[in-house]
Amino acid sequence: MDVGIRYGDGRWPDPKSTFLLRDAFFPVCSPALLEGMHPLRGSEDRKQHTLIHDRSMASESAFPTWRTWLQGRCRPVLDSGSQAALRELDAKSRGNHAFSLMRYESSPFFPHRFPHLIWRPYSLLSQQGYFGAMRELGKVRWAQKDGHPPLLLHTEGPPGESGVRAVRARFEGGAHFSATAHQHLIYFQMSPSLRIECRMAGLRAKQETAAGALAISPAGIDCEAESDQSADVLLIAVEPRRLALASAEDHVLDAELRERVSGYDESLLRAAQLLASENADGYPRGPLFWNEAASRLIDRLLVGHTSRPPRSSRGRLGQYALQRIRDYVFAHIAEPIQVAELAALVGRSEFHFSRVFARSVGMTPYRYVVHLRLQAAIQHMREGRMGLAEIAAETGFADQSHMSRWVRRVHGVAPSGLA
Questions:
Q1: Dihedral (C-alpha) 146, 235, 166, 307: value to the nearest 10 degrees?
Q2: How far is CA 57 from CA 197, 348, 352, in A?
Q3: Where does the HTH araC/xylS-type domain lie (predicted)?
Q4: Residue 142's closest CA among 16, 221, 227, 18?
Q5: How do residues 402-418 score in pLDDT, each as one tens digit?
Q6: CB burial of residue 162 (10 Å; 0-12, 13-18, 19+)
Q7: Distance of alpha carbon 185 from alpha carbon 272, whole angstroms
């Protein structure tokens, strides 16, 4: 599972969250605003005063703004994201004009540098805060010899929605692991040698393995492993939707991951070790590097550890149909694209098409169109020949803000972090 701290309102379908600490925001102003024709005494009085905005946080939905406080009844007058703006802010405060929101630690308004912005006339409640977040693998139990869980190393998940996680676990004196997971699990034994007994569906193995030995448990499969020795394990969890999408894009629809209780795959091990290294170092090379490294691992899984049904499964999308959809999206990528248009391409009703598409590709038709738009947008960003607003228009997003929100959601960073 992934364990970490998230900022927001705590309302996420996945991972589960536990409240830790409420964030602190409050208005600040010049002392002179507490006097005069319209003294600032409470929240209703702010309508009489100029409100200063931090437009640098405009794409941060969790960051409170005057617009969220006043429900759109305010007017931005100053961008506080630059030193010049801060100097202007200080000058306005000396002239009794400035009124802004401040946040503990992260605010651009530093009282020791701008002493006239130090009065806190009243409080405002923020619904945002810090939450402990945990993404469960499914029904999982793991323990070392003393019955306690193993030491988990580097469990913080990568930014965005890569669909791939790396967890390093160290068991002392013995190891027990059993699971029926929601994700595909790939285990690498990293100890120099290990006596281990494994069971997975109808497969069993009792063996002594060397470092690098692997086991693969597809999602939903019961698996169990026992050892009477200390063990160091690298676990890679892959969302089934991520493997399904990669399979579809590799023209191998309906690929199924095979169970394995033993074996070696040097290429897969190197790909997993690269992910573990990025995880341990805090993702220093950014989300695109992580996604590309995760894609290489999934490509290796597809090549070496999947099989295809003898014939195309009923209720699945054919490869030719998917290619027609892909070609159509790229041909009309700057335009609005409706699910009904895509359904008509392959001769299905919109309702039936949506179900079959999600089952075959691992995401809804709408998300697949967004996925292709993001692919094209990121390619333009890397080329550096167009501005973000132009890229958004060229790739069919409503506007730059819409594109930026999707980049943050999928990759975990602003578009500027992808260049």
A1: -160
A2: 53, 44, 41
A3: 323-419
A4: 227
A5: 999 999 888 888 888 77
A6: buried
A7: 12
In the predicted model, what is the mean pLDDT of residues 197-206?
Answer: 88
**Helical residues (DSSP H) of 193-347, grouped into ranges:** 240-249, 266-280, 286-305, 319-331, 339-345
Specify whether the CB–CB gap between 137 and 185 falls below 8 A: yes
Q: Tell me which residue of 310, 314, 307, 306 sits closest to 356, measured CA to CA.
A: 314
Q: How many CA atoms lie within 13 A of 419 on its CB side?
A: 9
- Nearest Cα to Cα of residue 155 among 141, 135, 138, 185: 135
Strand residues in 172-221 grouped as ranges (E): 175-181, 184-189, 193-200, 203-210, 213-217
Q: Which CATH number fits domain 24-127: 1.10.10, 1.10.3470, 3.40.190, 3.60.21?
A: 3.40.190
Which residue from 189, 196, 190, 186 is spatially nearest to 229, judged by alpha carbons?
A: 196
Tokens (6 digits) for 337: 């694209």
Distances, alpha carbon 32 to alpha carbons 98, 118, 120, 121, in Å:
10, 11, 12, 11
CB 101 within 8 A of CB 64: yes
Among the CATH numbers 3.30.750.44, 1.10.10.60, 1.10.10.10, 1.10.760.10, which is that of 319-418? 1.10.10.60
The residue count of the chain comes to 419
Report the DSSP pairing between strands 222-227 and 193-200.
antiparallel
- 206-265 pLDDT tens trace: 999 999 999 999 999 999 999 999 999 999 999 999 999 998 887 777 788 999 999 999
Look at the domain 137-307 and name its fold: Jelly Rolls (2.60.120)
Q: Which two tokens stand for residue 149?
A: 């869980």
Strand, helix or coil for residue 172: coil
pLDDT value for 101? 45
- Predicted confidence (pLDDT) at residue 69 exceeds the cutoff of 50: no
Paired tokens of 129? 């805060």
**What is the Cα–Cα distance from 214 to 261, expressed in whole angstroms?**
7
When computed from its CA atoms, the radius of gyration of the chain, rounded to whole angstroms, is: 26
